[in-house]
Amino acid sequence: MFRIDATSATPPFEQLRAQVVSRIATGELTGGARLPTVRKLADDLRLAPNTVARAYRELEADGFIETRGRNGSFVTPQGDPAHQQAQEAARAFADRIRTLGVPDAEAIAYVTAALRN
Protein backbone atom coordinates (compact mmCIF):
# COMPACT_ATOMS: atom_id res chain seq x y z
CA MET A 1 0.00 0.00 0.00
CA PHE A 2 2.81 2.40 0.88
CA ARG A 3 6.46 2.49 -0.15
CA ILE A 4 9.50 4.02 1.50
CA ASP A 5 12.53 5.08 -0.54
CA ALA A 6 15.55 4.37 1.65
CA THR A 7 17.76 6.48 -0.65
CA SER A 8 15.57 9.59 -0.33
CA ALA A 9 16.71 12.61 1.68
CA THR A 10 13.14 12.84 3.02
CA PRO A 11 12.78 11.04 6.36
CA PRO A 12 10.69 7.85 6.26
CA PHE A 13 7.99 9.20 8.59
CA GLU A 14 7.52 12.18 6.24
CA GLN A 15 7.38 9.95 3.17
CA LEU A 16 4.64 7.90 4.82
CA ARG A 17 2.75 10.98 6.00
CA ALA A 18 2.87 12.52 2.51
CA GLN A 19 1.63 9.30 0.90
CA VAL A 20 -1.35 9.08 3.24
CA VAL A 21 -2.24 12.74 2.60
CA SER A 22 -1.89 12.20 -1.16
CA ARG A 23 -4.16 9.15 -1.12
CA ILE A 24 -6.76 11.04 0.89
CA ALA A 25 -6.60 13.95 -1.58
CA THR A 26 -7.10 11.65 -4.58
CA GLY A 27 -9.95 9.79 -2.91
CA GLU A 28 -8.03 6.52 -2.79
CA LEU A 29 -8.44 6.67 1.00
CA THR A 30 -11.84 7.94 2.07
CA GLY A 31 -13.37 8.95 5.36
CA GLY A 32 -13.75 5.95 7.64
CA ALA A 33 -11.08 3.84 5.93
CA ARG A 34 -9.10 1.89 8.47
CA LEU A 35 -5.32 2.19 8.30
CA PRO A 36 -2.99 -0.69 9.11
CA THR A 37 -1.85 -0.92 12.71
CA VAL A 38 1.44 0.77 13.55
CA ARG A 39 3.12 -2.56 14.16
CA LYS A 40 1.78 -4.16 10.95
CA LEU A 41 2.74 -1.21 8.77
CA ALA A 42 6.17 -0.99 10.40
CA ASP A 43 6.73 -4.69 9.66
CA ASP A 44 5.49 -4.31 6.06
CA LEU A 45 7.71 -1.29 5.39
CA ARG A 46 10.63 -2.60 7.46
CA LEU A 47 10.58 0.48 9.66
CA ALA A 48 10.77 0.98 13.39
CA PRO A 49 7.29 1.16 14.95
CA ASN A 50 8.16 4.60 16.37
CA THR A 51 8.66 5.89 12.81
CA VAL A 52 5.15 4.84 11.77
CA ALA A 53 3.74 6.07 15.09
CA ARG A 54 5.29 9.50 14.46
CA ALA A 55 3.70 9.69 10.99
CA TYR A 56 0.32 8.70 12.48
CA ARG A 57 0.67 11.29 15.28
CA GLU A 58 1.37 14.04 12.76
CA LEU A 59 -1.50 12.94 10.54
CA GLU A 60 -3.80 13.00 13.56
CA ALA A 61 -2.57 16.44 14.65
CA ASP A 62 -3.30 17.73 11.13
CA GLY A 63 -6.82 16.24 11.15
CA PHE A 64 -6.28 13.58 8.47
CA ILE A 65 -6.76 10.57 10.72
CA GLU A 66 -8.18 9.74 14.11
CA THR A 67 -7.09 7.03 16.49
CA ARG A 68 -9.84 5.17 18.31
CA GLY A 69 -7.80 3.47 20.99
CA ARG A 70 -7.57 -0.28 20.49
CA ASN A 71 -9.91 -0.08 17.47
CA GLY A 72 -7.16 1.43 15.34
CA SER A 73 -6.58 4.49 13.19
CA PHE A 74 -9.07 5.72 10.62
CA VAL A 75 -9.15 8.38 7.91
CA THR A 76 -11.31 11.31 8.96
CA PRO A 77 -13.90 12.60 6.47
CA GLN A 78 -12.55 15.58 4.53
CA GLY A 79 -14.17 18.64 2.95
CA ASP A 80 -17.35 20.50 3.72
CA PRO A 81 -20.07 18.90 5.84
CA ALA A 82 -21.98 17.55 2.82
CA HIS A 83 -18.86 15.83 1.49
CA GLN A 84 -18.03 14.50 4.94
CA GLN A 85 -21.49 12.96 5.27
CA ALA A 86 -21.26 11.52 1.75
CA GLN A 87 -17.92 9.89 2.63
CA GLU A 88 -19.38 8.43 5.81
CA ALA A 89 -22.42 7.09 3.90
CA ALA A 90 -20.17 5.58 1.23
CA ARG A 91 -18.03 3.88 3.86
CA ALA A 92 -21.12 2.46 5.62
CA PHE A 93 -22.46 1.21 2.26
CA ALA A 94 -19.11 -0.41 1.37
CA ASP A 95 -18.94 -2.12 4.76
CA ARG A 96 -22.50 -3.46 4.35
CA ILE A 97 -21.80 -4.66 0.78
CA ARG A 98 -18.77 -6.61 2.01
CA THR A 99 -20.88 -8.19 4.76
CA LEU A 100 -23.49 -9.25 2.20
CA GLY A 101 -20.85 -10.62 -0.16
CA VAL A 102 -22.05 -8.55 -3.11
CA PRO A 103 -19.34 -8.05 -5.78
CA ASP A 104 -18.01 -4.48 -6.16
CA ALA A 105 -19.19 -4.09 -9.77
CA GLU A 106 -22.70 -5.10 -8.80
CA ALA A 107 -22.75 -2.70 -5.85
CA ILE A 108 -21.59 0.15 -8.08
CA ALA A 109 -24.38 -0.70 -10.54
CA TYR A 110 -26.89 -0.46 -7.68
CA VAL A 111 -25.59 2.95 -6.68
CA THR A 112 -25.59 4.20 -10.27
CA ALA A 113 -29.18 3.06 -10.74
CA ALA A 114 -30.25 4.64 -7.45
CA LEU A 115 -28.67 7.97 -8.37
CA ARG A 116 -30.59 8.02 -11.66
CA ASN A 117 -33.95 7.70 -9.88
Write a concise keyword list for the protein shown above:
Arc Repressor Mutant, subunit A, 117 residues, 2 strands, mainly alpha, elongated
Helix content: 55-70%
CATH H level of the largest domain: which superfamily?
Winged helix-like DNA-binding domain superfamily/Winged helix DNA-binding domain
String of helices and strands: HHHEEHH
Please tell me the overall pLDDT: 93
User: Radius of gyration in whole Å, from Cα?
Assistant: 16 Å
Alpha plus pi helix count: 5
Mind telling me which CATH architecture of the largest domain this is?
A: Orthogonal Bundle
List the strand order in the largest sheet.
1-2
CATH topology of the largest domain: Arc Repressor Mutant, subunit A
Number of domains: 2
Q: Helix/strand/pairing class, anyone?
A: mainly alpha
Can you walk me through this structure?
The chain is elongated. It folds into two domains: 1-78, Arc Repressor Mutant, subunit A (Orthogonal Bundle); 79-117, no CATH class. The relative contact order is 0.13. It has five helices and two strands; from the N terminus they run αααββαα. It is mainly alpha-helical and 117 residues long. It has helices spanning 12-25, 38-45, 49-61, 81-100, 104-116; strands at 65-67, 73-75. A two-stranded antiparallel ribbon has the order 1-2.
